[in-house]
């Protein structure tokens, strides 16, 4: 019962605590001041509610603490608690020392339950004799404890089984345990959250007899935690200050555990047997194995009650019928004696007969203190694809056909494993190199080195059958951290389908691969279902031009042919959509048209509404693990990327995508949403005013103010007699219109994330903005700035002074802004940035700084950002030009510093659904970044949180980052044109762009022959073109004179294929051989086949970022 006194001031606030049981007893209140932190014990005085009896009650331990996170904390605990953490219900026998002939008190504690001293003392009120004295001795700590399992648990045995009492323990002096359990370093449990805690271990054995004959002993581990607590007087008021009592009372927690816990992390059920070292103790009827054997299913654990000092250990794989060689705990202890310090764990190999395969064994002691044994394999293979796979060691001879038949799904572990669809299997062989093939079909093989794999990769298996062209099975492979309750060095090798179609619409849809399946219906995906995309191997094609031949050796072989697919609704009369690249990340829109000569129910097409003649859909390509998942939605849940508005009063317009055979008509004062017919064609819209020769190609990706529809040359040659068969009886022009046609123009503006093409006369242009702003100039300077990142530490005390983790210093920070009537020009420069480690024991002095050999020679600012914004009243921020350049830097990071930064990670504080600011970037560029990187791995700490352990698993199990010393990492730049995105989208896409190059650098550092699978595009319909720009690795300078501007045009001119290409390798030497300069560009992401939008301005910005052309 808690009672707070609100009438007192903060410095005198009190809380009164009393124990009571309704209708039985209550104790005198204890007054606890809340303004003083500390921990104290009181002996309560209990009064019976039925009569006037008063007697000494149980002890109460109270802790008052304050910290900056939780605030005021008040904890009330008993003096003694005993926990039963075993599988058996236990009988606890309490006796007073030197009174063994006196009647004892017996308490039954079920598995997982607890009994404390306060319950025992209060229950003693209704007892008498020796049992009452024994329970009252719990409060003084003067007692002996013995245990035995309860008989009722084994009453169903056909023989008389007797569990006898164990020896007595007093808890005052611990009996030292020996064996391997003593050699392992114990991760101490902070049950009382103080540093003065005492911890001890001992073991108890309970003899087991069957039919009067001793057969075995059940051993239990006793873990005692204790601390000395200052004892306060019994008058209920705490004595504070120097007059505080120095008498101490021992507070204890006693945990009763089994001695060994075995975890099965194998993908098969196992039978585990732990026996004593003396074989003669085992009976033929297996009664001697009570508590010594168990069948453990995959992913679970079992307790064992063996002598922790010496036992034998053996495992049987039930699925394979293979038994391991017996291992002896004494040999484990001898092996650990050779180590100079007590280890956190011990890793061993458990060999199976006939010795051709093995599993791993890890011994450790966690917070429980008992010996924990984990069985696992280094790798676990998981197949979530639709194909059953055969996995063998790469150096192994091919297996006979009868062993790998379609009906056989259980290979001997030494031969590998067969992975049916949606299954997992442990990899028992010692080889880390996999040979993967299809189990039930003939085809090619893939070889994967698991040691060289970092993060993820992809592989393809060609199916050899009578179908031509051959089918291809595409897979993604990644390393996943193992999520077990125990930390083991194991990874899951996840094999997934590379391309997945998810139909999220209400009707079925057909999918086919372009240029391969043109004459077939393709794969049908029902509504709300998923399916694996069936790919086909395209025929051989010769190199189309000199450029392809020139760069052939720099291509990634697996990317010679990008896969494009088409969709078609399973509705009568609709045709196929334009092509979509399956490896282009982002959202794409498509259009479905009805056939021209189609008749539905006898009604001609002309009688149908125009909205019935075409439908729109969206495809969101998302990378999930290593799968490209294409989410098909019809109709789209978001607005289409374009809209066409005809604001003319009398004239209709016809418009179509350049080089496309499909066209649309729009009447006067009408508007319509629009999406490209074919994303591989030029992203230009050809617009014609019907019954006139007025024709114009318009880049509707480019936001532009009102412009005349007719160019000057077109005005001089205008002939209104031209009709081209497009005359309409409803459309007639008088002489005034022939004059007003010269006033017709167009504009492109942004309405949210939709670009709107508006055809109108100049006088009727409400979107035209006349903005007059005064010219203003602002300058901002900081000569020196220092930022400290502080760590409060592990202590809960509020008064602890925080320590510094990192210190960042900025020198000569400048910001200049010039505002004109058309633009806002901003230039931000930082001359020097240094980030230093300041915590004790840091591996590196400096974490981040400019590279001394390359950056200082240029005498340039380490960071420069140039931005030109258009002055506009639109809700979409229009960025005319944005350029970011970072000079070569040194980056040195150690794992311990990363772990200290994990607690600072926070998700966005913005409410869910908050709209992000929308930007239109006419040109956005991030220059190539060169990093001289160093990384030093660390060891796992017992104090790490779940978030820190998750980061460790990512670094060591998934990516497997090696120790890096001064390795050069080159992050290619991004050159983006006419992009309409939110800031969040831009940030995530750039982060994904750079993460690919970081992962590739890790592969290169490790010397791996693999490369991470790349994407073909990131900016989908949000940008007209994207280039991946980088410089020669042999020269770190970015500020180079004499750049050959023609390189962009050379690539643009020769890139006529519809796909996107990524060139890898040392392209710098190749370009230098071709007499180009050191700075060059290679295409990796192109939303269409034209790269003209990034020709000159981008390169000018790369070389001279301060020189901005405002047009």
From TrEMBL:
InterPro entries cross-referenced by the UniProt entry: VPS13, VPS13_VAB
Q: What is this protein called?
A: Vacuolar protein sorting-associated protein 13 VPS13 adaptor binding domain-containing protein
Q: What is the lineage of its organism?
A: Eukaryota, Viridiplantae, Streptophyta, Embryophyta, Tracheophyta
Q: Name one Pfam family in it.
A: VPS13_VAB
Gene Ontology process terms (BP)? protein retention in Golgi apparatus; protein targeting to vacuole
Taking every annotated instance into account, which residue ranges of this chain make up the domain Vacuolar protein sorting-associated protein 13 VPS13 adaptor binding? 252-678
Organism of origin: Aegilops tauschii subsp. strangulata (Goatgrass)
């Amino acid at each position: 019962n808690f009672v707070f006194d609100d009438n007192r001031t903060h410095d005198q606030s009190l809380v009164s605590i009393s124990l009571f049981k309704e209708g039985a007893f209550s104790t005198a209140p204890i007054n606890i001041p809340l303004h003083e932190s500390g921990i104290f014990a009181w002996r309560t005085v209990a009064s019976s509610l039925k009569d006037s009896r008063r007697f000494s009650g149980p002890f109460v331990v109270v802790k008052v603490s304050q910290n900056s996170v939780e605030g005021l904390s008040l904890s009330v605990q008993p003096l003694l608690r005993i926990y039963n953490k075993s599988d058996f219900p236990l009988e606890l026998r309490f006796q007073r020392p030197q009174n063994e002939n006196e009647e004892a008190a017996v308490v039954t504690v079920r598995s997982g339950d607890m009994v404390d001293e306060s319950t025992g003392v209060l229950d003693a009120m209704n007892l008498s004799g020796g049992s009452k004295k024994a329970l009252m001795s719990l409060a003084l700590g003067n007692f002996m404890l013995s245990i035995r399992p309860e008989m009722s648990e084994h009453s169903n045995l056909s023989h008389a089984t007797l569990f006898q009492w164990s020896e007595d323990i007093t808890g005052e002096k611990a009996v030292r345990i020996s064996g391997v359990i003593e050699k392992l370093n114990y991760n101490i449990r902070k049950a009382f959250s103080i540093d003065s805690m005492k911890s001890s271990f001992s073991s108890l054995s309970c003899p087991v007899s069957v039919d009067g004959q001793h057969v075995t002993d059940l051993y239990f581990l006793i873990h005692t935690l204790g601390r000395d607590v200052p004892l306060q007087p019994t008058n209920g008021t705490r004595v504070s200050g120097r007059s505080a009592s120095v008498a101490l009372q021992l507070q204890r927690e006693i945990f009763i555990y089994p001695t060994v816990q075995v975890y099965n992390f194998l993908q098969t059920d196992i039978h585990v047997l732990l026996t004593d070292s003396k074989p003669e103790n085992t009976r033929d009827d297996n009664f001697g194995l009570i508590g010594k054997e168990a069948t453990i299913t995959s992913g679970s654990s079992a307790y064992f009650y063996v002598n922790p000092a010496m036992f034998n250990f053996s495992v049987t794989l039930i699925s394979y019928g293979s038994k391991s060689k017996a291992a002896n705990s004494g040999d484990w202890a001898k092996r650990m004696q050779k180590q100079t310090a007590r280890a956190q764990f011990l890793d061993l190999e458990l060999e199976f007969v006939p010795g051709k395969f093995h599993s791993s064994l890890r011994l450790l002691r966690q917070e429980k203190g008992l010996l924990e044994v984990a069985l696992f394999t280094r790798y676990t293979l998981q197949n979530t694809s639709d194909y059953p796979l055969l996995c063998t060691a790469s150096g192994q001879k091919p297996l006979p056909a009868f062993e790998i038949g379609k009906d056989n799904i259980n290979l001997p572990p030494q031969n590998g494993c067969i992975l049916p669809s949606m299954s997992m299997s442990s990899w028992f062989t010692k080889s880390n190199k996999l040979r993967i093939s299809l189990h039930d079909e003939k085809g090619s093989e893939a070889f994967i080195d698991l040691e060289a794999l970092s993060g993820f990769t992809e592989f393809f298996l060609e199916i050899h059958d009578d179908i031509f062209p051959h089918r291809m099975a595409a897979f993604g492979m990644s390393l996943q951290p193992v999520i077990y309750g125990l930390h083991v060095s194991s990874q899951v090798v996840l094999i997934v389908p590379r391309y997945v179609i998810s139909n999220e619409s209400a009707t079925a849809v057909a999918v086919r691969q372009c240029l391969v399946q043109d004459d077939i219906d393709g794969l049908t995906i029902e509504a709300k279902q998923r399916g694996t995309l069936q790919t086909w191997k395209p025929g051989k094609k010769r190199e189309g031009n000199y450029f392809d031949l020139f760069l052939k050796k720099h291509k990634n072989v697996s990317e010679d042919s990008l896969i494009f697919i088409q969709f078609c609704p399973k509705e009568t009369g609709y045709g196929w959509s334009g092509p979509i690249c399956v490896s282009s990340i982002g959202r794409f829109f498509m259009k479905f048209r009805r056939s021209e000569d189609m008749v539905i129910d006898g009604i001609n097409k002309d009688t149908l509404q125009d909205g019935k003649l075409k439908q729109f859909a969206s495809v969101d390509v998302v990378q999930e693990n290593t799968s490209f998942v294409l989410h098909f939605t019809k109709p789209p849940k978001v607005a289409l990327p374009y809209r066409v508005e005809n604001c003319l009063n009398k004239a209709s317009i016809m418009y179509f995508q350049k080089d496309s055979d499909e066209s649309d008509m729009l009447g006067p004062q009408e508007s319509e949403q629009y999406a490209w017919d074919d994303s591989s064609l030029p992203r230009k819209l050809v617009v014609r005013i019907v019954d006139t020769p007025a024709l114009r190609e318009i880049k509707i990706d480019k936001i532009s103010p009102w412009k005349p529809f007719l160019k000057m040359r077109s005005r001089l040659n205008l002939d209104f007699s031209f009709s081209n068969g497009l005359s309409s009886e409803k459309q007639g022009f008088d002489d005034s219109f022939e004059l007003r046609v010269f006033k017709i123009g167009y504009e492109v503006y942004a309405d949210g994330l939709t670009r709107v093409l508006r055809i109108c006369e100049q006088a009727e242009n409400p979107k035209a903005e006349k903005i007059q702003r005064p010219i203003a100039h602002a300058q901002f300077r900081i000569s020196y700035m220092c930022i400290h990142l502080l760590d409060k530490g592990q202590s809960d005390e509020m008064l602890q002074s925080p320590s510094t983790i990192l210190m960042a210093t900025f020198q000569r920070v400048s910001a200049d802004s010039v505002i004109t009537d058309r633009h806002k020009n901003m230039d931000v420069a930082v001359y020097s940035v240094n980030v230093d480690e300041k915590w004790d024991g840091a591996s590196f002095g400096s974490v981040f700084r400019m590279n001394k050999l390359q950056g200082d020679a240029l005498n340039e600012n380490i960071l420069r950002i140039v931005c030109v914004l258009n002055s506009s009243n639109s809700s979409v921020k229009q960025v005319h030009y944005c350029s970011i350049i970072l000079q070569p830097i040194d980056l040195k990071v150690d794992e311990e510093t990363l772990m200290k930064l994990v607690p600072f990670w926070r998700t966005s504080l913005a409410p869910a659904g908050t709209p992000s600011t929308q930007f239109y970037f006419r040109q956005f560029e991030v220059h190539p970044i060169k990093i001289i990187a160093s990384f030093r791995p660390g060891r796992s700490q017992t104090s790490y949180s779940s978030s820190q352990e998750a980061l460790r698993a990512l670094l060591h199990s998934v990516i497997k980052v090696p120790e890096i010393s001064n390795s050069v990492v080159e992050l290619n730049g991004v050159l983006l044109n006419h992009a309409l995105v939110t800031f969040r989208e831009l940030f995530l896409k750039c982060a994904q762009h750079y993460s690919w190059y970081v992962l590739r650098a890790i592969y290169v550092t490790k010397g791996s022959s693999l490369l991470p699978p790349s994407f073909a595009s990131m900016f989908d319909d949000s940008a007209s073109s994207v280039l991946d720009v980088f410089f020669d690795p042999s020269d770190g300078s970015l500020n180079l004179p004499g750049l050959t501007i023609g390189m962009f045009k050379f690539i643009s001119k020769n890139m006529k294929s519809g796909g996107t290409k990524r060139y890898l390798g040392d392209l710098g030497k190749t370009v230098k051989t071709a007499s180009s300069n050191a700075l060059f560009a290679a295409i990796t992401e192109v939303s269409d086949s034209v790269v003209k939008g990034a020709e000159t301005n981008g390169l000018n910005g790369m070389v001279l970022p301060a020189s901005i052309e405002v047009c």
